[in-house]
Amino acid sequence: MPTIKDLRRYLFGDPLNPFSPNILRHVSLIAFLAWIGLGADGLSSTCYGPEEAYVALGAHTHLALYIALAMAITVFIISLGYNQVIELFPSGGGGYKVATQLLGPYIGLISGAALIVDYILTIAVSTASGMDAIFSFLPHQYLHHKLFSEAIMIIFLLGLNMRGMKESIKILLPIFVGFVIIHFSLIIYGIAAHSKGLLSLIPDTVSETKNSAKVLGWFPLLALTLHAYSLGSGTYTGLEAVSNNVNRLSEPRVTTGKWTMFYMAISLSFMAAGTVLLYLLWNAHPSHGQTLNAVVFHTILGDSGLGKAVLYITLTLEAGLLLVAANTGFLGGPAVLANMALDNWVPNRFRHLSTRLVIQNGLILFGISALVILLWCHGRVSFLVILYSINVFVTFSLSLLGLCVYWAKRRKTASPYWFWRLAFSLFAFLITSSILSVTLFSKFESGGWVTVLITCAVITLCLLINKHYKTVAKKLADLDAQLKHPITEKNLHPIIPDPSQPTAVIMVGKSQGIGMHTLLCIFRMFPRHFKNFIFLSVGIVDVESFTGGEALEQMRHQVTDNLDYFVQYCQQYGFAAESYAAFGTDTVEKLTGLAEKVGKKSPNCIFFASKLIFEHDNWITRILHNETPTTLQRQLHLQGKELVILPMKI
Q: What is the pTM of this model?
């Protein structure tokens, strides 16, 4: 009979060794795969972003030419801005790290919270929109199954990403490539078929603009154009994802990141501007129950059997790409959460990696949160789009503002091109902040306030978590200072433990104060009983250490140096002592393995560990702090071993 462990391995794949010299190459992404995995969000937005802008123009569709040009230019401006982010922050983190390090931790918190909410909404809106497209081909009696199907799809994507980022992208690759090929072909054909109209488009647009200005006035006409342009802002989503995941790209990471951004900028600008041009050239008008893309593609392809078949394939690929875009939320969101965990804004468990070297806790949180929002709004895409289109421009604006501050401060020491980089960053900031202001103003009452409320709630929660961690860290630092005893006699002749003598096996972590607390408690509770002391420690490979060989080696040295301190401390007082270390992604699993190894060598041993005890212990503190001692105690009890947990009140 297969066990649960066997089933889990079958679903998620075999564990990966983070210390393998080839592991980074195995899990990292080349530019092409990164474009597919991280660029799908942007390309999928061309299924609804250009339509939002075009429809907002009303009868003044000639203004769509300006919108098309503005969209293409904006994509390149934001992409070039994020190229600077990739250069300055090659370890990933994107807008969160830019805002944190260049504008301050609290501005970084705003950027990070906006990104968390935005990625959750990416999953929800893309899944709902994709399933809307699929169910539009099915009989109406199946519509009541749509919400359930959306929930199942989110769970499927969650499971897919548990296997790893690269694996999920490879599975979804055919959908992405099919979408790009067929849409590029239709745009090129649609524009070429109206080549005569294209030649007269510019003079006609200029003439109609002058006539409209005489009737409406230049200011109202400009306001209408800017309003439509801002409503199409969903087109630019997804450009942030590359800078968040630079650390998951193939070496050289900066070059790979820039090529990925180039692929995204070319494809997104062509798709967005080309789609708007198709609307304009083919005189597309909204039709009830159909997207504007469906209307214009139907007009281009006609009513022949082949035309209908191609239209069906095109719209099916649009639906599929929207689901690939939902996967972008699972790729980018946990990475942001992990970087925030490193700064203690969210629980530390969100920085940990699974055996497949993915941020498992972050994936689960994003999957559950997207499910809750989807069920809460009953999968209404129109409402989700309003929630979704605000926060991404918060991050865009803060990142570009951070770049402005960076180049302004380094004007004397930076390259001779600092002024042009500053001017470019400032120009890009003005564009994104203007879009943010117009979008927030126009959509606030129709649902934008919900996004603001949720984001503020996330920020408040992060502030409370950070305050708790700071308090605990200060107390642990005081404890380290009080309990850390100096090693007065170094390089002593090692005293080898006698396996037949009573042995105390002590689990130690990063804090020397906690380890020393455990050791001193043993001396006090069992005076002169134990003759041997064995120290066990596990180095955890998380998002901070899993960035390359240097970071892993530094983590190894920290663990071994900590163990050496305790061994030398015991030996200078005449006690036999030794240590064992293990490294991996699961603390309990590795400590259990070490305990089994030590238990076979020293059968007359008792295991000890300390656990932080809070005055107001509740489920919140248990989420913020791992329950390793309790979980480990259960595992050792199942093996017939004794683990004594010593309380340590904070």
A: 0.80
